[in-house]
Specification:
mainly alpha; Rhopdopsin 7-helix transmembrane proteins; 3-stranded mixed β-sheet; 12 helices; globular; disordered N terminus
Length: 310
Amino acid sequence: MDPQNHSLVSEFVLHGLCSSQYLQNFFFVFFSSIYVAIMLGNIFIVLTVISAPNLYSCPMYFLLGNLSFLDMWLASFATPKMIRDFLNDRKLISFEGCMVQIFLLHFTGGAEMVLLVTMAYDRYVAICKPLRYMTLMSRQTCINLVLVSWVIGFLHSISQVAFTVNLPYCGPNEVDSFFCDLPLVIKLACIDTYILGILMISDSGLLSTICFLLLLISYTVILLTVQQQVAGGARRALSTCSAHITVVTLFFGPCIFIYLWPFSRFSVDKLLSVFYTIFTPLFNPLIYTLRNEEMKSAMKKLWNRRVTFH
């Protein structure tokens, strides 16, 4: 359905992160550096997993490569525009561009949530059922699980956008954020969207909460099992799980807060949005590589090989 037949608003005005010109100049340099680091770090992880046969054949690293791929998309749906907007007095985004941002946020965010659950299941099988690990986590199984995460992310996202794009927007067009966030956009519609907003945002909150609870259950079972293992294996498993738990906390904490209290906007919401859309994709490569000797060794070999080649 053509949104222009139902909306007089052709563009939205984004408030951005702040109004101070000095801070915007600082943020331009800061977030430009962060974005470059995100892309380089995650691309390096993907290339390392693909180029190292021992990593590419391992389910855990195959899933990690897919997580890095999603992180690049999560960091790119709004960050480049935010960086450009630091140089502009008026931060405008077209109606279509706004809907695309909502779609990409929920697509990549939903897919990443399910993928993190898949990674927790992978660690559960590796630690609790080690003898059946390669059978339960075969390559085809891993591919299917990744596809499921993408399908769930797509269905979740399209269900959000399908309602949002057809709402009538004829009045206010200012969004108090640096990107089009669902709770902020739907309240600009010219009809009472309270019930619809509850249903739509509950979808995001429910997905976040269910995935988070599944992750808590998985890691609780893993940690209880680890206590019964020998000290060396327990320490290694605990190190791996602690990295996963750190990523889960950094990603799910802000998401659950924002979408479980969508109609009570706080100044901290912008900070939380920055955290899970920008800093989480930055921290993931650091957390998963700095705590993993096998990954660090493969990355060092890839780097040395490319330096030697050039």
